[in-house]
Amino acid sequence: MAQKALPTLRQLRYLVAVSDTRHFGRAAETCAVTQSTLSAGVQELETLLGVRLIERRSRRQVVFTPLGEDLAQRARALLADAEALVDTAQAGTRPLTGELHLGVIPTIGPYVLPSLIPTVRTAYPDLRLFLREETSASLLARLHAGRLDVALMALPYAIGDLPRLELVSEPVVLALPEGHPLSALPEVPLEALSDETLLMLEDGHCLREHAMEACRLTRSRQNEAFQATSLATLARMVAGGVGLTLIPALAVPEEARPGSGITVRPVADTASARTLALLWRPGSPRARDYALLGAAIERTVRAILESAAKRLAALGVPADPAGALLSDPDKDRS
C-alpha cells in the first residue's frame, strides 16, 4: 500500500499561526518568515489535502472554513505532541533545559517573578523561559491549547483533571489608609467592614472571589462604582482614602512598603484565601521539570512571606496574629 503524503510540521505551524492571528502578515512575523513564504506554505498544505482551509477575501480579512477551523485545532495538538517528543528527549538528559512557557495570574506575577526569574536563570542557564500574565480563565485556555506548558495559579478554581503541584497556602489581609480608626485594632472584626467602602478587583480575577469567601462577604459588600484591574491600583486608591481593600500576604512588602500611605491588619476569623499551585496538561513528559520549578517558586514565596511578616511587625501587628497569618505550607498539605 502506497504511503500517504503527510503535511510537514512547518506547514502546520503556518496554519496555526494564521489561525491565531487571523492575519497573514502578523502570522509571518510570528513564524519569522516572509509573508509570501507563509502564504505559499499554506497553499501547499491546501493542495496536499485537496481542500480549501482559508477564504482569502481581502488582505485584511482572513476567514477559515469550518473544515479549516477543525484542522487548525488538530494541527495545534500535533505540534504540541512534536514539541513534547523533543521535551522528553531533553528531560532525559538535563533538567529544565530548552523552552518553557509559563503563565501566571496578575495577583501573583508582580510579587513573585522579579525575585524568581534571576534565581531560575542562575540555577538553570540552559532554560529559555517565556512568561505570559493573564487571568485564570485565559491561562487555562492557553494551557489546554498547548500555548503554555505550565501555569502558576491560585486555588480553589475549577481546573478539571489537570495535574497540579500545590505550593503554599496564603491568607488575605485588610489594607487601609494610615491613621484609619480600624488601624488601632490588632485585628479587624468582620462586622467592622459593614460600614466601610470595600474596593475589589474586577470580574475575572480569582483573588476577588478568594478574598470574599475567606472573609465571608457577599457580592453586595463590594463597591460597584470602582473595580480595578490590578492590586497596585487598589493600593493607590486606599492610600488616597477612597476605601479599604483585601490583599494577599504576598503583596504586603510591596503595596504596604514604608511611605506607601497604607497599613494592614489581619481580619479576625478568616481562613486562608488561596493556595498557589502549578498546573500542567495530563501526560506531560516534563513533570520532573515542573517539580523543580515548583520548588524554586516555593522557596521564593516563602522568602516573600517572611518579609511580609516582618513588615506586619513593623506596622504594629502583634506577634500572634502575624505568626498565624503566614501558615505552614507543609502543614497545609497534610
TrEMBL record:
Going by the entry's taxonomy, the superkingdom of the source organism is recorded as Bacteria
Family that this chain belongs to: Belongs to the LysR transcriptional regulatory family.
* CDD domains documented for this protein: PBP2_OxyR
Q: By its UniProt entry, which InterPro entries does this protein fall under?
A: LysR_HTH_N (IPR000847), LysR_subst-bd (IPR005119), WH-like_DNA-bd_sf (IPR036388), WH_DNA-bd_sf (IPR036390)
What Gene3D superfamilies does the record point to? Periplasmic binding protein-like II, Winged helix-like DNA-binding domain superfamily/Winged helix DNA-binding domain
**Which cellular components does GO assign to this protein?**
protein-DNA complex
Query: One matching Pfam family, short form?
Result: HTH_1
The entry's keywords: Activator, DNA-binding, Transcription, Transcription regulation
For this entry, the protein name equals LysR family transcriptional regulator
Which GO MF terms are attached to this record? Answer: DNA binding; DNA-binding transcription factor activity
Under SUPFAM superfamilies, the record lists:
Periplasmic binding protein-like II, Winged helix' DNA-binding domain
* Keyword Amino-acid biosynthesis in record: no
Q: Which residues form the HTH lysR-type domain?
A: 7-65
